Amino acid sequence: MFTLVLSTPAAFFARFGRGYLSSFGFILIIVILAQIIAIAGYGEYFP
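Above: the chain sequence. Below: its structure as tokens.
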């Protein structure tokens, strides 16, 4: 379920940006947020 939730916006940004860089940026932001949320103690609720 989490994969579906995260891949849909990445595909949208790839389509909207007409390339792969915008979707790569989105995924990079998600990875940074995942690290911050894991440090805060809520890592089990965020993919």
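The two ends are 10 Å apart (CA to CA).
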